[in-house]
Amino acid sequence: MTADMCILSEHHSMSADETYPGMSQDHQQQISGIPAGRGSERPLVSIVTPNFNYGRFLGETIQSVLGQKYPRIEHIVVDGGSTDDSLDVVRRFGSGVRLIAAPGTGQTESINIGLRAATGEIVGYLNSDDLFFDSDSVQTAVDVLLGDASAWMVYGDLYEIDDESRYLDSISTTETEFLLADSFLQLVNPVCQPGSLMRRRALDVVGYFNETRRYAMDWDYWLRLAAVGRIVHIPRSLSRMRVHSSSKTVRALMSKVDDMLELYDDAFSAAWLPDSCREHEMEVRCLVAGYCIIQCFAARRFARAGTLTRVALRWAVRSRARDLAKLVRESLRHPRGRALRRHLGWLPLSAPASPSRGRGR
């Protein structure tokens, strides 16, 4: 991305004959060959926006929804009890936005409240500090869903922007679709959530977002959804995600640790998890513990990191995962691991590694 593209235009949109970079010619022809139809013939799309004290961004978010070229959109804002000017911002848009006041609810609860109130055949949520990429974003996502009956959900790429909506970075994935086993075993969530849309039947079959999750509720849902239907990637930016100091994603590392541990505990006890994932439980649990140790280091929670290191080593020994045991030992030799070693005086840092087995994780 060049410097002169640093500031995003509010009115950028792709022309009808513009191609999607990275998309095959056949796929482009498939999308462009779908007739737009009259507005009344298109499925209703419901966009839910959870909000709490983000009035300074909320107006721009609503404008990005109302500015979509797609003719049938229902926009629902669920407010968790804001004390700023959020409610006034919503009311300025009149009948274009449906407001649901739900004081005391968190983000995931607000999303579920909005989804239950939604009447669209296609649904999605856009956080109150995020934006659609351009005026064609919803149209693009709907066209792919209508053109592929096997797709239960679609997602695209995104731009990261700052408080002033200036370009920071672009995020894209190379996957053509979300694969449950790859995501679960590699601890990777490739889905850029803003701009994603899914069929209502996903809610009927999979249910709603897990309200005990604060940070991984979307990944938790994608895993469960991928167990029953395809999640397709569109190689085109569909959204702009705002990164700022007060955003929830930036704030609490330890809550992410709790979410990750609980997500995998629940998954390994769930019926939807395929055997191809379940057979690698010991290796995966060791990887999860390793990820959480890194988060604990970043948050300077060394005692918690010590506890998780014991867990990681226990799983590494049980799985005979040589490389993982070596990785943990090496991390303790790092200068930042000195405080952690005080909690692990019993650890045999020079112990020989066990032979690997299976995936060698």
Q: What would you say this structure looks like, in words?
A:
- The protein is 41% helix and 17% strand.
- By secondary structure, the protein is α/β, with parallel strands linked by helices.
- The protein has 2 domains: 3-8 and 28-250, Spore Coat Polysaccharide Biosynthesis Protein SpsA, Chain A (Alpha-Beta Complex); 280-341, no CATH class.
- Strands 1, 2, 3, 4, 5, 6, 7, 8, 9 and 10 form a 10-stranded mixed sheet that branches.
- A hairpin with a 5-residue loop joins strand 6 and strand 7.
- Helix 13 (302-319) packs antiparallel against helix 14 (322-333).
- It is globular and about 60 Å long.
- 40% of the residues are buried.
- The model is unreliable at 1-38 and 339-361 (pLDDT under 50).
Short description:
This protein is an alpha/beta fold and 361 residues long. It contains 15 helices and 10 strands.
Provide the descriptors you would attach to this structure in a database record.
361 residues; alpha/beta; Spore Coat Polysaccharide Biosynthesis Protein SpsA, Chain A; 2 domains; 10-stranded mixed β-sheet; 15 helices; 10 strands; 17% strand; globular; disordered N terminus; disordered C terminus
Supply Rg. Answer: 22 Å
Label the structural class. alpha/beta
- Beta-strand percentage range: 15-25%
Compute the number of strand runs.
Answer: 10
Q: Mean pLDDT, as a whole number?
A: 80
What's the helix-strand series?
Answer: HEHEHEHEEHEEEHEHHEHHHHHHH
The CATH architecture term of the largest domain is Alpha-Beta Complex
Helix content: 40-55%
